[in-house]
Amino acid sequence: MKTQKYKVEMSILKPLISIKSFMCLFLIAILSVSCEEKSQKCPDCQIIYSPDNMSYIFDFPDTVYKNKEYSGVIIYKNVLDTITKKLSNNLDSIRSRDIYYTLAKTQTLKHSDNTLTKMAVDTFAAIDYRTIPLFNLKFEKEGVNYIDGFITDIGYIKKDTDSVRMITNEFRVAHKVVVIDRDKQ
Which residues have C-beta within 8 Å of that of residue 1, sequence separation ≥ 6? Predict the structure, then answer.
């Protein structure tokens, strides 16, 4: 009698094991399909970087030709957007901002902030509170290069006719660029 009871319990467990196997395979198939759909929906999406109180998208080619000029843009958000969205070209404003990007071209990201500041080759001012254009950038050295620098965002709040409060945020922002020689292809 004991033997027969054991056989009945095993016959009940066999279908359960195959159901678990089927569910695992089904789950794996669903996950792999959903991951493929995400990558196909947005093949040219830029990476959004979000440190504590800012975020940015570096819209610049990842691969460029040696000695050819390229343009791009940094799309930028900062906590200072809550103070004002007006740039300081309006001198009568009670609140305004200056936003600019100081740029260096490097082959490594290991430079200290002070060294990078000394290596700066150009500065680009924002055209609005979200957009910093980059233009006429070309690279002379083949291989992996970086656009590396600082976004400086300065908010001004006039307290009265004689005093202005100034709030400065500075963020290091870099983008990897692979430089290839058109003639070697």
Answer: none
How many angstroms separate the Cα of 78 from the Cα of each of 40, 41, 134, 155?
Answer: 30, 28, 19, 11
CA 102, chain centre distance (Å): 17
> What's the full length of the chain, in residues?
185
Residue 18 to residue 6: CA distance in whole angstroms: 19
Any idea what DSSP says for residue 79?
Answer: G
Q: List Cβ neighbours of 63 (8 Å cut-off, separation of 6 or more).
A: 177, 178, 179, 180
* Residue type at position 130: R
- State the Cα–Cα distance between residues 57 and 5, nearest whole angstrom: 66
Six token digits for residue 126: 């924002």
User: pLDDT tens for residues 77-111?
Assistant: 998 888 888 888 665 678 889 999 999 999 999 99
Q: What's the burial of 134, exposed, middle or buried (CB within 10 Å: 0-12/13-18/19+)?
A: buried
Amino acid letter for position 76: Y
Furthest CA-CA distance within the chain: 101
Kindly report the pTM of this predicted structure.
Answer: 0.69
- Report which secondary-structure segment, H or E, holds 160: none
